[in-house]
């Protein structure tokens, strides 16, 4: 791109290309370790060059007149003071348009870099690659809802290879926050509410992404995040949380501890949250003592976007932006993520005379250089558009995506109306989310752009013929809308068809219009009243009041209150954060080609939460009166079109080291189907309060009608412990176990065992 070169020269910052650096320098030699190479390079760097590595420009490209162009402001900042990494900017740009520009930028920058230190490309990657043109997978919560680890690994492999083809060597995932607050607009980016389930998915994500190539380079580095985040004030993503050290070690921190044990995430992002009154970006105790010291995290620690300036502008724990930068550095932050404008870390250049600061900057630079060396960023050739085109949306990736989409939809209620009869030829398809591909905040999808595959409307039209699907939105997708004028038409269509599929929800994606602004789902949004935004409940109620058999389809990742009125629906499905084949998968499920199943209200509460006081009308329950702990929909729950029966479990101890639970699962229904076998436990007596039960293993199996299979789940006894003041403790004595198809009492078979 013509603009790059003049700008580089005009800035004059990287102008003196000293080609005199001997090409045989150790750091240029791939046979040395990343650590050795980083150490060698560090010795040659000026302070300006070092500080430059501590940040980057997140939004290198804008989208102007339907095509990508360099964002000149971002470009200038990147070249001047934030030279560590780049991000792509607008998600609406196509990958094949962006790659040549990114390559050109890389070449120009390398031509002018004294030591030849390349940028590394870092992007978010939730539903797939960050810009448009890749395979659009369902969001993380939908992946978690598959409970299918082998399938998930295939999906992550596809996402990894599409990122690699685009030159992305570092992603800002996995997100291991626990979806414990139903109001949080970001729950769709999380795997779910349970720390074991989340840790399991995240560990497989990291190991798959970071798999080494044939030359020993890490394919794509990962960022485990957001350390540490849980139930925040008001359900707001950036708000404060409580969390004592036991709670952090046993719950919020458990997926990290698991991932550090079984995988090695090369970086970690610190949360926006203030934890126990200390904002995480300046939380020296949590980062240096707990994360580094006790949990043993070895990789790079980065801030979340604009979180360091927040210490000054929002939390008021710093006197100035520079003071905020110093506090963050002292707390252990090594990299500043900064999507827009000038960052704080470049001002550290004024403090390099202070030996303590200089030492910390060196540590931080080592950390990013090691990632660059480990991922082959110095050594590997730039990716080509032709290779990119071959990789993106390959037949295999699309097939994996179809399989994931089918297993990520959860059937929550069914009176036998589903599957629809084969002779169903007409349906009324109602609701504003029926014709929206609701792919969440981080998808490269403009949801009104029909290039991106199936909305539920398009998939049903393909199946039944456009004339046989009577589509009426009925009400607006905008949460602030009060317009009910479309409801009578929608009800009339329902009566005429004799059956209605009503698709309601919240969210929608990276569109920048008023619709996106007036949403309740997505990063930065909260969903305090748990109802369907806008007039959607009114639409649903009107159709149900008319007596038309109704199938309710939920769209988006929020927890919706299904009140008694909504539960009059004959069947209820939830699609969570959708991918490009979710619409097709819904059509398949409605007509019975497929099946299966989860629900987010924490099942693993503490025994003391059982009390809650008595009133004249009954007991208080949970934080949200509508979301009872004893709800029919609990964690791990999902219905099927077939029936499974579990035999009485046998739980055996082996060699005093392992507990094995064995059960025979039989498909006693008439269809092939998949079931998730789940093992829960608690030590009968503990030193500190232990949840009423805790998931400890799961596996998903497929059975043909009449088939049965013995399933064994084994857990090392050492894993049955818990932390007290950060020390691991394993009880002896009586343990309660439960094995079954969900965390509901009626779906579980209890068994006790005494462990010596
Ligand atoms: C980089 O340098 C090479 C060789 O000096 C030159 O051919 C090429 O045009 C330069 N590229 C850019 C983008 O500056
Ligand atoms: C361009 O980059 C600047 C600085 O990062 C940012 O503030 C601005 O929003 C970007 N503009 C566009 C159109 O993306
Ligand atoms: C890559 O794909 C894009 C979009 O389909 C197309 O415009 C471009 O010509 C292709 N380029 C190559 C080199 O195959
Ligand atoms: C997708 O699922 C089908 C049916 O279970 C299976 O035969 C196929 O191998 C799967 N494909 C991939 C790529 O996992
Ligand atoms: C559709 O099939 C069911 C049996 O599966 C039958 O009871 C019903 O009458 C059929 N409806 C029509 C319109 O043919
Ligand atoms: C999204 O796509 C639609 C249809 O192509 C287009 O009208 C709209 O401008 C796009 N929105 C953005 C933010 O690009
Ligand atoms: C979006 O919400 C704002 C604030 O409630 C309101 O002023 C605006 O009219 C809404 N936009 C639309 C299109 O409803
Ligand atoms: C269900 O919720 C809607 C909207 O909040 C409310 O209007 C309706 O009365 C509720 N119905 C029942 C039966 O609780
Ligand atoms: C298991 O533990 C018991 C009690 O500590 C001990 O007597 C027994 O020898 C142990 N068995 C094995 C196989 O280690
Ligand atoms: C298991 O132990 C608990 C006490 O922790 C007891 O209440 C329960 O009845 C026992 N269950 C079985 C199946 O033995």
From TrEMBL:
EC number: 3.2.1.21
Tree of life domain: Eukaryota
Record-annotated Fibronectin type III-like domain positions: 675-743
Keywords: Carbohydrate metabolism, Glycoprotein, Glycosidase, Hydrolase, Polysaccharide degradation
Pathway involvement of the protein, from the record: Glycan metabolism; cellulose degradation
Catalytic activity as recorded in UniProt: Hydrolysis of terminal, non-reducing beta-D-glucosyl residues with release of beta-D-glucose
SMART domains to which the protein is assigned, alphabetical: Fn3_like (SM01217)
Molecular function terms, GO-annotated: beta-glucosidase activity
Protein name: beta-glucosidase
